[in-house]
Amino acid sequence: MNEAFFTLHDDLPREGPGDRESLDWAMGVARVPQAARILDAGCGPGADIRGLLEHAPRGKVLALDLHPGFAERASAGFEDDPRVTARAGDMMAVEGPFDLIWSAGTIYFEGVRQALEGWRDALAPGGKVVFSELVWRNATPPEPTRAFWAAEYPDMTDEAGLRDEIAAAGYRLLDCRYLPASAWEAYYGPLEERMDELEAEGPDDDIPGLAEVIAAHRREIAIWRAHGDSFGYLLCVTEPA
């Protein structure tokens, strides 16, 4: 199934909802130094690296992703830029110090409280953690949506629950806002094009489970298109309290 997943996700520009306007907003809140040391935690193919560097033009970015293929693609985009180091690695196994830890849609792998607690010692004085996390926006979501996310992300909470997790980790929330629909389309649009291409090529018996993986992604997109107002990614700018 992993082979099928990575076949589908091969050469996508990003691995989750996000866009440059949202990054610019968050960096404006975080106010990182021009020479900031930045960790892009779970960087995927490196969609956010350029934007991060534009806010810290004299800074350095360490981009980590567990999947070597994603890290290689992130590295390839900045081969001639000494400010960027991209490699396969555990986003929690870092020492820092970092002025900013950026985690676009990946903090759920560790858990919000656990990740924030784990990164505390890797932050420089005044350092910030910026992350996006999927939350409920509606206390009574439609049944198809509730059932889908109960299976995909059973620990999903709402905005109040996320605020509680941030506080329990010993952090303060400086500001937050939901990613706009354009940020979702920036991910789902290329993903749909990739699925169309693979289906047009016909069945591939060498990649078990590919049809099932495509079907699951199409269900996810359909759920968002029909009921996207009942859940969303909350982009949070935080710092240790």
Could you describe the 3D structure shown?
- This protein is of the alpha/beta class.
- It contains nine helices and seven strands; from the N terminus they run ααβαβαββαβααβααβ.
- The protein has helices at 2-8, 20-30, 49-55, 68-76, 112-119, 143-152, 159-168, 181-201, 210-227; strands at residues 37-41, 60-65, 84-88, 98-104, 123-136, 171-178, 231-240.
- The longest helix is centred in the C-terminal third of the chain and has 21 residues, at 181-201.
- The radius of gyration is 18 Å and the shape is globular.
In short, what is this structure?
This protein is of the alpha/beta class and 241 residues long. The protein is 42% helix and 23% strand. A 7-stranded mixed beta sheet has the order 3-2-1-4-5-7-6, with helices on both faces.
